[in-house]
């Protein structure tokens, strides 16, 4: 059984190399991390467990098919940390029906079914998250990807310390396409579900990141905002 | 000699499949079109000719090198319509120095040097532009791309008529990756250089486009805003 926090869409992927691609999100419940600025605490904090549903692969695909009107599209597995769940059967079943699968995970845990994925986005957490980073574990995740799996790194940047860390990560993994993403420090939280993201601040941080990378002549990292936050702010289910 | 309106950067590409990629823009002067909602009239209207500069390929590359500190990156050729200019020598010179080249053109005119490009973005204009669309000409442009040239279509959508037109274009060219882009109806113009884009309206139009394509189960087109407008509004030189 797979622990599910929410399934929604079709909408568009708001982050990373697949930005703007139509997708249905399958968000799993449960995480081995607790980032300082987590924007999906309802899929992370154990206190929300009663809102998560244990589902089978075919129950999940039935819901994805209903949302997509049976027309295959990209399914994005997110969390929490979806790499904690047994997703091999879901991938097999969905791919048989023509769906493609992307996962978003921090790279703290690897699974043999990473090789079945169409897209693997590894998003190791920067110092500002308060979480540890283990390059050897990230390397193992990269190696677990299959021949046909498109891999990317996505690094969230809240400040100069995070930026310098990202430079080091990029130097350690020069062969992996990478995108940098400004950190939303005003995500909605269970305590403050109506919290609005500060778009002025987010835009200023995006511009800072473009200038910062430019001043280092760091031209092989893409710089992308959280598109869904610019368009829908902190709204859930989009 | 190449007619140049402006050269600026490094910044990021704000549109299409290369969104977020660091780049220097080389904007040529002169256009065979005059779209109703053109956002770069200063590179289109003949009355701005005295602001355009005739430059050689090596003069242009000298300026690109200065802006990029000699570190190769993506150079984006835009306009006006850059396909009106003799750019073959520029491509050869820049690529020898390690730079990659993308062009943004409406597909009304093709050039043999299209085959030298790293990226060819064809942006045929929708009905709301007031300009004609010739599918045969677009097909010829696609055929002019080389084996190594990555091709994409980028279609601007202002309304339902444009949307239906885009559906037809997509059906005619199913093999070409495509992105849809909401139209900025409040671009700055020479008469109103301080005009601000209406971000609330642009976001509403983006959301409409996501819903519209979703309701048709049209999942193989990316939907992307003009990122630079969301981040820098109508500012020039970013």
Can you give a write-up of this model?
Two copies of one chain form a homodimer. A nine-stranded mixed beta sheet of chain A has the order 3-1-2-4-5-6-7-8-9. In chain A, helix 1 packs across helix 2. The first copy, chain A, has six helices and nine strands. The longest helix of chain A is centred in the C-terminal third of the chain and has 17 residues. The mean pLDDT of chain A is 96. In chain A, helix 5 links the parallel strand 8 and strand 9. In chain A, 28% of the residues lie in helices and 22% in strands. Chain A is an alpha/beta fold. At the A-B interface, strand 1, helix 5, strand 9 and helix 6 of A face strand 1, helix 5, strand 9 and helix 6 of B.
Task: Please specify the SSE layout and strand pairing.
The structure is a homodimer of 238-residue chains.
Chain A: E1 2-12, E2 22-28, E3 53-55, H1 57-67, E4 74-78, H2 88-96, E5 100-105, E6 119-122, H3 135-144, E7 150-157, H4 160-172, E8 178-182, H5 199-215, E9 221-223, H6 227-232
């Amino acid at each position: 059984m797979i622990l599910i926090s929410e399934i929604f869409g079709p909408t568009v992927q708001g982050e990373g190399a697949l930005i703007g691609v139509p997708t249905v999100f399958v968000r799993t419940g449960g995480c081995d991390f607790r980032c300082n600025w987590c924007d999906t605490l309802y899929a992370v904090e154990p206190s929300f467990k009663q809102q998560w549903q244990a589902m089978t692969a075919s129950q999940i695909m039935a819901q994805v098919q209903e949302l997509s009107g049976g027309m295959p599209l990209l399914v994005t597995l997110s969390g929490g940390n979806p790499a904690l769940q047994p997703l091999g059967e879901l991938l097999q079943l969905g791919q048989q029906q023509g769906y493609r699968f992307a996962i978003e995970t921090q790279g703290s845990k690897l699974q043999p079914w990473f090789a079945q994925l169409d897209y693997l986005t590894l998003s190791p957490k920067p110092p500002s998250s308060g979480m540890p980073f283990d390059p050897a574990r990230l390397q193992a995740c990269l190696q677990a990807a299959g021949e046909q799996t498109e891999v990317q790194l996505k690094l969230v940047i809240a400040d100069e310390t995070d930026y310098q860390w990202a430079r080091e990560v990029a130097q350690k993994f020069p062969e992996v396409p990478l995108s940098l993403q400004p950190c939303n420090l005003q995500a909605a939280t269970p305590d403050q579900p109506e919290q609005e993201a500060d778009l002025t601040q987010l835009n200023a941080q995006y511009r800072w990141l473009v200038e910062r990378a430019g001043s280092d002549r760091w031209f092989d990292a893409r710089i992308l905002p959280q598109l869904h936050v610019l368009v829908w702010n902190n709204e859930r289910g989009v």
